[in-house]
Amino acid sequence: MKRIWIKDISMYDGKEVEIRGWLYNKRSSGKVKFVIFRDGTGYLQGVMLKNNISDKYFDLFDELNIETSVIAKGSIHEDKRAPGGYEMSINYIEIIGKANEYPISKKEHGVSFLMANRHLWIRSKKQTAILRIRSEVINASRDFLNKRGFTLVDAPIFTPAACEGTTTLFKVDYFGDDAFLSQSGQLYNEAAAMALGNVYCFGPSFRAEKSKTRRHVTEFWQVEPEMAYADVNDAMNVAEDMLVYIIESVIKYREKDLENIGREISILKKCTKPFSRITYTEAVDIIKSKGVDFKWGEDFGAPHEEIIALHFDKPVFIYKYPVEVKAFYMKRDPDNEKLVLGFDLLAPEGYGEIAGGGQREENYNTLVNRIEESNLPLDAFKWYLDLRKYGSIPHSGFGLGIERTVRWICKLHHIRETSAFPRTLERIYP
Ligand code: 4AD
Ligand code: MG
Predict the structure, then answer these.
(1) 397 lines ligand 1 (CB under 6 A)
(2) Residue 403, domain member (yes or no)
(3) Residues 200 and 58 occupy one common structural domain
């Protein structure tokens, strides 16, 4: 008998099949027992009729606790009343692993209880939908870059120096020396772009974020494209195309999951090209026009980004930031020494930054000055400065945060639900 996945059930109308999964729910009305299985791809109602199934199987019903693992066989038929539209008439059932009383029930649980049981919580309907959407976001962003001819180059995780500021470094002992977990693969990406043209890295980034927010985790994943002979506008063009591709792919392949978590798809469908591009200074004007006090030159916090992100009904780019609020590697605006050619991409509905990048400083001397001004160790950046000594070119790139993107696409309140095992300030278990 053919073992099938529940997601493919409609192809087996009238056929005998086997499914392997877990018990999601059950109910009984005398001689008719209903069970709902899940197998990670969907949910299927099975029915056991006293007269159609041998007693040894019928009696197993009482042992089927929530999350008991089971193999079931039977014939599939369409039934509009069943969740998913199909039902299995069970003629065989086997318990693979018994289940103790399951700690997560259908009733409301507090967040800290759910987080402590994250290894079990991820089995729930909403969490599996989010994880499938995350998988598609990653798949789509890589697919997009691969199709455009970008070469994947993995950046190291152990690094000798900071990329995104020294305050959020995770220090590790590296055989007696200090090393740091990577905050971004960007600097290595720049070297790779000089070797291969258009490249990207995809991997984890680590930041010792000491504030508790709904949009920061200490371990997150970035897709980081880096392009040789590209300016800041080229980078924004690629970011725009990539995000549109991601949204289209999620709608195309994960529409059911979006529905299941209650996400309104029409809003995502509106996110077509072009996205608005405003300068930092224009963004400040918008913030002030809403009656909020803000001093030019300061960095935007979450509330400021929220204002901008609510002002537009699509993702929006902010570019040309003050030098002080951005990292040392950003190229100065040739028209205004106070600005750098960096950008952030903000998601609508108040979500704010999901990607950041820009044009890199290609001038050796300017870069040396910026490293010194930022109190970073020149020694550790010697290799990086070499890139400006041997055929330096204009180049640009950005990093798209997977968790931030998933949080917005799924319209989640908190970033913790965007990864299977999120790492936060207060939690490293399970
Ligand atoms: O804006 P960031 O710090 O930029 C960089 O790391 C660049 N070096 C990327 C590049 O140009 N190659 O981080 C990039 C993105 C942010 O826009 C955000 O989506 C995500 O990474 N991010 C975080 N996501 C979750 N938790 C955190 N603590 C994050 N910090 C950054
Ligand atoms: Mg940023």
Answers:
(1) yes
(2) yes
(3) no
Question: Same domain for 40 and 82?
Answer: yes
Angle (CA) 160 163 165, round 5° = 110
pLDDT digit string, tens, across residues 73-132 = 999 999 999 988 999 999 999 999 999 999 998 788 999 999 999 999 999 999 999 999
For residue 415, which atom of ligand 1 is closest to its CA?
25
Residue 348, preceding peptide bond in cis (omega within 30° of 0): no
Separation CA 146–CA 67 (nearest Å):
39
CB 172, CB 180: distance < 8 Å: yes
Does residue 225 line the site of ligand 1, with CB under 6 A?
no
pLDDT in tens, 12-50: 999 999 999 999 999 998 899 999 999 999 999 999 999
In angstroms, the CA 85 to CA 45 distance is 9
Q: Which of the listed residues 222, 361, 423 should we mutate to test ligand 1's pocket, taking the one with most ligand atoms within 8 A of CB? A: 222
What residues have a C-beta under 5 A from ligand 2, the ion? Answer: 356
Question: pLDDT tens across 240-263, in order?
Answer: 999 999 999 999 999 999 999 999
For residue 167, what are the domain limits? 118-417
Q: Is the CB of 401 under 6 A from ligand 1?
A: yes
What is the domain-level CATH number for residue 178?
Answer: 3.30.930.10
The answer to whether residues 154 and 127 touch, using CB atoms and an 8 Å cutoff, is: no
Is 355 a pocket residue for ligand 1 (Cβ < 6 Å)? Answer: yes
290 and 383, same domain (yes or no)? yes
Q: Are residues 141 and 88 part of one domain?
A: no
331 Cβ below 6 A of ligand 1: no
Question: What's the one-letter identity of residue 427?
Answer: R
What number does the ligand 1 atom closest to the CA of 329 have? 8
Ligand 1 site, residue 199, Cβ cutoff 6 A: no
Task: Answer whether 328's CB lies under 8 Å from 376's CB.
Answer: yes
User: Is 131 strand, coil or helix?
Assistant: helix
Q: Which atom of ligand 1 is nearest to the CA of 353?
A: 17
Domain identity same for 188 and 240: yes
Residues 285 and 178 in one domain: yes
Q: 186 and 324: one domain?
A: yes
Shared domain for 55 and 154, answered yes or no, is: no
In a domain, 74, yes or no: yes
Query: Could you tell me if residue 288 is inside a domain?
Result: yes
Q: Is the CB of 207 under 6 A from ligand 1?
A: yes
Q: Tens digits of per-residue pLDDT, 52-77? A: 999 999 999 999 999 999 999 999 99
